[in-house]
Amino acid sequence: MSEKLGTVLVPGRINPRVPEQLAQVFEVVTASQAPSADIDPAVLARIRGVALSGKFANEWFDLLPNLQVIANFGVGYDGVDTAKAAERGIVVTNTPDVLNDEVADTAIALLLNTVRRLPQAETWLREGRWKSEGPFPLVPLSLKGRHVGIVGLGRIGREIASRLEPFKVRIGYHTRTPREGLPYTHYASLKAMAEEVDTLISVLPGTAETHRIFNAEIFSALGPEGVFINVGRGTSVDEDALIAALRSGTIAGAGLDVFYDEPNAPAELLEFPNVSLLPHVASASVPTRNAMADLVVNNLIGWFREGQVLTPVPETPVRRG
User: Are 36 and 55 in contact (CB under 8 A)?
Assistant: First the structure.
C-alpha cells in the first residue's frame, strides 16, 4: 500500500464519492459539521486539507493550525469565510463549469414548469381528474413572446441564454459591466431591467452584495405579467416580499430551486398554484455530481502533490494546476 499524501477532514455530509476517492490517497477524518472536542489534537494538527459541502464553521480555523486548503463541493462557496481563509493563507476551491449545463437545463425546465404549470397538469392526470373533471384548465401565461432578463451572466448565465435563444424570446442581462461580443441587451441596474422585462432568472451567488436584492421594489418593477426564477442562491430573495407579491398579483408566478433557509421552504409558497418549487436539485444528476466530486478530490490531490489547485476562488488566488 502506497504512503498517504496527508490528512483531510470531511466535516458533515458530502457526496459519498468524495470520501471514497479521498481514502485511496489520503488519511480521511470525518466529523460533524460543527466542530467537536472529541477529535484528538494530534489528529487535528495533521489535517492540512478539508473537503466540504455546505457551511464551514469558523471555529474550525482555530482548531486546525496547519490547514492549507478547503475544497468546496459546489460552485457556490458562501458557506466558507473566504476573507478569514485569505488572512491565514488558506486556499479555497469550488467546482465551476462541470455543473453549468445541468443547472442551465434546470433553469429552463423550471421556467417552463412555472409558466405552463406542467407539474400541476401531471398531478391532474395522476389523480384521475382528467377523466372525472375534464381537461386541465388553460394556463394564463405562455413563454411565447416573453422578454427574459438574466441576473448574473457568468458561465451558467451564458448557458441559460444560449438555451433560451431557440425559444425566440428577447434576452437581456444585468451585470456590473457589459460582456463583450454578446447579442443581448445589457442593463446597468437590476431595477432598470426589471422594468423592461417580464421574466427574471437569477443565477446570483450568495454574497453580502446580493443579500435580499430581490425585494418588493424589484417585484413591483417586474409587474403583473412577471415571472421570477431562481437557480442561484436563496439568500438573494426577500421571501416575505416575494410571498406578498404573489398574493397580491404584483407578479404572475415564480419558480424556485433555492430558499433562504434551506431545507426550510416557507409554507406560504406551497399554497400558490402559480409557483413551481424544487428542493435545490439544479445539479442533482449522478453524472454531474460525480464530476463535482472528482474535481473536489483533484483539487486536493493537486495541492498536496504540487502546491497547485485547478479551480481556486477569486478571493484566495493561487497558481492553477
Answer: no
Answer yes or no: is pLDDT of 278 > 80.
yes
How many Cβ atoms from other residues are within 10 Å of residue 219's Cβ?
24
Count CB neighbours of 237 within 10 A.
27
Cell numbers at residue 236, please?
438573494
The C-alpha angle 277, 280, 285, rounded to 5 degrees, equals 115
**What gap in Å lies between CA 202 and CA 65, rounded to an integer?**
38
Pick the CATH number of 100-277 from 3.30.1330.30, 3.40.50.720, 3.30.70.250, 3.40.710.10: 3.40.50.720
CA dihedral 94, 259, 205, 211 (to 10 degrees): -140
Fold classified for 7-98+286-306: Rossmann fold (3.40.50)
The residue annotated as part of the active site, out of 147, 163, 186, 280, is 280
Q: Which of these is catalytic: 146, 158, 233, 289?
A: 233
Nearest Cα to 313, choosing from 74, 73, 77? 77
Helix (H) or strand (E) holding 149: strand 147-151
pLDDT in tens, 173-226: 999 999 999 999 999 999 999 999 999 999 999 999 999 999 999 999 999 999
Of 31-35, 115-119, 283-287, the range with the lowest mean pLDDT is: 31-35
Domain ranges within the chain, ordered by starting residue: 7-98+286-306, 100-277
Q: What is the H or E stretch that residue 287 is in? A: helix 286-306
The overall average pLDDT reported for the chain is: 96
Q: In this model, does residue 1 exceed pLDDT 50?
A: no
* Catalytic choice (20, 122, 127, 262): 262
The reply to whether 262 belongs to the active site is yes
Give the pairing of strands 91-93 and 253-256: unpaired
Strands (E), 209-271: 227-230, 253-256
